[in-house]
């Protein structure tokens, strides 16, 4: 769908603002599916009744698990919603401000984007976050799982590659790959099931060691098999990467195209990053960084991106600086990056995040850097802090404290 068609539902003044703010930010959709989502969101934005508290409450609930409306980067839908909300949000004052915490968080993030702030079209709105009441986040009730046949369970429980050990606890040991489905014959089903149960007992680590020939040279963990239940940070596949080549995007002034080695035998992955205005190209080459490796690939102005570089943005907004989140010195491409704590450090990431599940969007807002710069995920429900680590130590940007990570 063309840009003109996408924006046709907006007022003329808002159309001009959106076009200017979105320039060079890959903000007009990355694929046909995303264009359809953009069109749907623009229709919602154009019909949003700001004075209707029910509409605002519904929007606040929708934004509670989102960083952006479509995908993992700002689009025309976000910029349009920001422009639509501005006049009403600017008039809000406590306690009304606190009635819509997700809208305020989303709005403040959007207004601090360089592409929005540099236009000076809308004055910045200040919020008293220090005195905001703590948000209580209630976990959704887990969905009932359908009972699978024993044969299906055996097949799904076999990971596709071997894991590398964490520094403080051994990895989850995969089941033997030769497990066979149970015979469906009702006469012999009990006997066969008994044999299969015995076969599925975890084998000793030493028995698996000689066959550890997974595709990732750096020892990336085998993927998890289910994204059911509440989103967990351990579902996200973080790995050490090294930028072996970088160039400017031929069709977008604000984008780099990088080749990043993450220890795969297939070679470096192509990654498109919107860092041109924040990190000089000479500081990109040969940097060892962290990548999010299991996002769904996305077309960025004609070039498909197969991962995302994890960066820290200043708490004052991107104008205050953006830095790479870096692993400990000596880290090698492909090494596993995980979340500290018994609950997460041995859990396995998903092979690919399902965009419909919004797992990244639910987890990312709680990424931050602590007072000592350590990168971490803070559980909004319990307040527990889980640092982002490798087997050699903690990952961190070079200077940013209280930064958001994305």
Automatic annotation (TrEMBL):
Keyword tRNA-binding set for record: yes
Residue ranges of the region described as Disordered: 138-233
Start and end residues of each TRNA-binding domain: 232-338
One GO MF term attached to the UniProt entry: tRNA binding
Keyword terms: Cytoplasm, Protein biosynthesis, RNA-binding, tRNA-binding
Example of a GO cellular component annotation carried by this entry: methionyl glutamyl tRNA synthetase complex
Keyword set includes RNA-binding: yes
Compartment list: Cytoplasm
Domain GST C-terminal, first and last residues per copy: 1-127
Compositionally biased spans, kind Basic and acidic residues: 138-152, 192-207
UniProt record, GO biological process: translation
Pfam family, one: Arc1p_N_like
The name this protein goes by in its record: Nucleic acid-binding protein
């Amino acid at each position: 769908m063309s840009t003109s068609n996408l924006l046709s539902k907006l007022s003329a003044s808002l159309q001009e603002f959106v076009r200017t703010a979105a320039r060079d930010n890959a903000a007009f959709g990355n694929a046909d599916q995303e264009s359809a989502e953009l069109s749907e969101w623009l229709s919602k934005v154009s019909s949003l009744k700001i004075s209707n508290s029910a509409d605002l409450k519904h929007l606040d609930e929708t934004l509670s698990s989102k960083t952006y409306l479509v995908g993992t980067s700002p689009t025309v839908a976000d910029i349009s919603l920001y422009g639509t909300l501005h006049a009403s949000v600017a008039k809000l004052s406590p306690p009304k401000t606190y009635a819509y915490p997700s809208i305020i968080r989303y709005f403040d993030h959007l207004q601090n984007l360089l592409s929005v702030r540099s236009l000076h079209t809308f004055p910045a709105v200040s919020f008293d976050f220090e005195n905001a009441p703590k948000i209580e986040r209630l976990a959704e009730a887990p969905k009932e799982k359908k009972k699978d046949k024993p044969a299906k369970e055996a097949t799904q429980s076999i990971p596709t590659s071997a894991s590398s050990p964490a520094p403080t606890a051994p990895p989850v040991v995969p089941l033997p790959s030769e497990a066979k489905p149970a015979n469906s014959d009702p006469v012999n089903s009990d006997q066969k099931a008994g044999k299969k149960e015995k076969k599925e007992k975890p084998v000793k680590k030493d028995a698996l060691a000689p066959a550890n020939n997974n595709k990732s040279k750096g020892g990336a963990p085998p993927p998890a098999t289910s994204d059911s239940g509440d989103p967990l940070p351990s579902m996200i596949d973080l790995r050490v990467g090294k930028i072996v080549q970088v160039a400017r995007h031929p069709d977008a002034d604000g984008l780099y195209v990088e080749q990043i080695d993450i220890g795969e035998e297939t070679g470096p992955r192509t990654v498109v990053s919107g860092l041109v205005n924040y990190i000089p190209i000479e500081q990109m080459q040969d940097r060892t960084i962290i990548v999010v490796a299991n996002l769904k690939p996305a077309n960025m102005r004609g070039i498909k991106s197969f991962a995302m570089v994890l960066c820290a943005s200043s708490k004052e907004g991107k104008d205050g600086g953006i830095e790479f989140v870096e692993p400990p010195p000596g880290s090698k491409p492909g090494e596993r990056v995980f979340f500290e704590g018994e609950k997460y450090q041995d859990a396995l990431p998903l092979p690919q995040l399902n965009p419909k599940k919004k797992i990244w969007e639910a987890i990312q807002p709680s990424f931050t850097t602590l007072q000592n710069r350590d990168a971490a995920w803070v559980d909004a429900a319990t307040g527990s802090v889980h640092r982002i680590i490798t087997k050699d130590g903690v990952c961190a940007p070079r200077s940013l404290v209280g930064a958001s990570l994305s």
